[in-house]
From TrEMBL:
Belongs to the AHA1 family. InterPro entries: ASHA1/2-like_C, START-like_dom_sf. Residues 22-148 form the Activator of Hsp90 ATPase homologue 1/2-like C-terminal domain. Signal peptide: none annotated. This is SRPBCC domain-containing protein.
Length: 154
């Protein structure tokens, strides 16, 4: 956040990944429950607009660890958008209440791989969740996705 950002403005985590795998394989890592669970969290995703699904994070006192999601947009092997809600208002750190939107955009790369763009929007820019989830998304996501896809190919 810079000094000119209004207090009520929501912040987004934006990350670009370069993956060696083609969009069809990366799409699987984003939309198949077992593959998605292997690099993110257990879930029951189905890439169909209107489908409601959950991610299951470790529970903490005051929050059961469930992230409630709904598929908002699907463009096969190109774009996936879902609402990400969960947590508890009273929690300040891990498990703080969120109502955000996750957008994945896949673009074929010249080398046969994928340019994967993530935008996770709707955060209070001063929140702990924004800081911690930003670190998580910027961490080893690309490496983990590639490892999961390599293991799934065997």
């Amino acid at each position: 956040m810079n000094e000119s950002t209004p207090v009520n403005e929501k912040a987004s985590i934006v990350v670009d990944y370069e993956l060696p795998d083609p969009p069809a394989k990366v799409w699987r890592a984003l939309t198949e429950p077992d593959l998605l669970a292997a690099w993110l969290m257990p879930n029951n995703i189905h890439a169909e607009v209107g489908h409601q699904f959950n991610f299951h994070a470790p529970a903490v006192p005051g929050w059961d660890g469930t992230v409630y999601c709904e598929i908002l947009e699907v463009a096969l092997q190109q774009r996936l958008v879902y609402r990400w809600q969960g947590g508890a208002k009273k929690l300040e750190g891990y498990g703080h209440e969120l109502d955000t939107i996750v957008t994945w955009t896949l673009t074929p790369a010249a080398n046969g791989g994928t340019q994967l763009h993530l935008e996770h929007a709707g955060f209070d820019p001063e929140s702990y969740a924004y800081k911690v989830m930003g670190q998580g998304w910027r961490g080893k996501v690309a490496t983990r996705i590639s490892e999961v896809l390599a293991a799934a190919a065997h």
